[in-house]
Amino acid sequence: MESQEFAQRGEQVRRIAANVMDITDISDAPQHRAGALRLRGYLQRDPETAYHYIEPRLSNLGYTTLLRQEDDKVSLIALPGRLEAGQSKLWLALLLFALTILSTIFVGGNGLVLVALWLQSGQFVPEAFQLGLGLAFSAAILSILLAHELGHFLMARHLRVAVSYPFFIPMPISPLGTMGAVIAMKAPPPDRRALLSIAIAGPLAGLAVAIPVLVLGLSLSEVQSPPPNQTLLLEGNSLLYAAIKVAVFGRFLPDGGLDVMLHPVAFAGWVGLLVTGLNLIPAGQLDGGHILYALVGPRIASIVTWVIAVVLLGLGLLWPGWFLWAVLILVFGQRRAPLLNELTPLTQRQQLVALLGLIIFVLVFTPAPLTIVEPGL
To answer: What is the pTM assigned to this prediction?
Structure first.
């Protein structure tokens, strides 16, 4: 009875697929889901046209359609049921955002160096708190991070890809006051084109806010000799950050014993560039990893992920935080968001957009993000 039912289901799927595909074999695919079917063969049409023909027809039969490349053949996988997205907890997203506002006000108002010293020595000076600076830092950094996350969120909604609300992570005992925010995909993107659009929308939106925030903050900052006998938190240079400082101050800094003493708004703008660079690292589940996968496919993206992890291990000599990043990429880097249709390539215009994302990564990547400089060093 079961074999007869399997044959009937297989025949229904085969008839639909045969209109756009030369089928060589049909088999059960329990490794994907109980009752799943796999059809292998060669497409008669381009992947996008074939998928758009098959998907709604199999959906009417109660299947979710996946399109994969297996060696020299195409694999069409029909999963029984539909991939339903769960509900997001709006109240939790709002609560975490409110807590992140408080934590960033706390860090900005206490002074970034004082917070860094607190982390290092455990000594804290609460009377140093300045509410005005805290509010300025919080508004600046959260506007950048919120723009980044809304870029992802709104693009995903536009493409009808189910994603969670942005969940911010408050971290008051840190130089930033937050560990950023995360958005989870609750359903697979339809293809590489959608993956690219969602992945790059966040960094572009965040950068569009970070640059004017940084320019404003630098205009509020002073260029002077570092105060003597005082521990400093030295921010690292990226190519774009160095260029913006040259544009604002007319010189490369630090230079000749002078450096810019960052206003909290300027530091928030710098963090915006840093976060953009971190997210655009072309590896694993990072935005840059999604962009690279959309551009070159799984095989090359997997190789690059391993190379990036090794490079970050080397950069750990400049900043110990890269050791953690390298480990995370090695552990989770080969896991990626599945696509419904993995075969449809990017258009030429989208390839240029993907290359733009990788160029931005080079411009904003900071090899040594933060350094605590002790007096006399």
So the answer is: 0.89
